[in-house]
Amino acid sequence: NHLKPIVHIDDSVFNGLYAPWQDALVVKLLGKNIGFQAIKDCLTRIWKLVAGFDILDIGNHFYMVKFDTTEDRQKVIDGGPWMIFYHYLTVQTWTPDFISPTTKIDKTMVWVCFPGLNLIYYDESILLALARAIGTLIKVDSNTLDVRRERFARIYVQIDLNKPVVGKVGLKGYWYKVEYEGLHRICSSCGCYGHLARECPTLAKTPMMVPN
User: How much is the pTM?
Assistant: First the structure.
């Protein structure tokens, strides 16, 4: 098709183009769009890196970040969760097949709270079981493990954004509410993240009344 030509690049050329970016990270603010300078200033403030970094706008509100030192890069990978304006910053390693217009954030790590959880359940094995009902446990808040915060238990989990988020978990005959910090657009109809009930695509349209 002469209107849609395909360009072929030799692998040796491609490998040379890939090399300067192989240690870059790709970041995106989940659920909120802000300008280039604003996100650069925010990253500088929250990361507090020893050396510098370069940031590039690669479209669709994704940004590629290159670090001056491997230590700073590792700090960003390991040091989360990072939040800007109470929204999570997603961080992923860059790969050569990354295409910003078609890339969708499928998973994110999020702090989850269980208000009113019985204090006897502030145990790592119980919290692990609760986490498995929601996603994958990353870590438990130190205040929860040390029982220094009694009003709620708090864990850090990875969740699948393609699935409805869990609203309640049952334990010993009681249903505990699950609260997600920093996730602002959870549909009360289908339970999925990314839209509100009035925008839910699963809601059946109300049939129009045809007058006699």
Answer: 0.78
* Cα–Cα distance measured from residue 177 to residue 196, given in angstroms and rounded to the nearest whole number: 19
Q: How far apart are CA 174 and CA 105, in angstroms?
A: 33
Answer whether 21-93 and 107-196 agree in fold: yes
d(CA 166, CA 85): 24
Can you read off the two tokens belonging to residue 23?
A: 């240690």
Cβ contact 28:87 at 8 Å: no
For 2-36, the pLDDT digits (tens) are 788 888 878 777 777 788 888 999 999 998 899 99
Q: State the alpha helices, DSSP H only, in 119-184.
A: 124-132, 142-145
Q: Find out if CATH 3.40.190.10 is the number for domain 21-93.
A: no
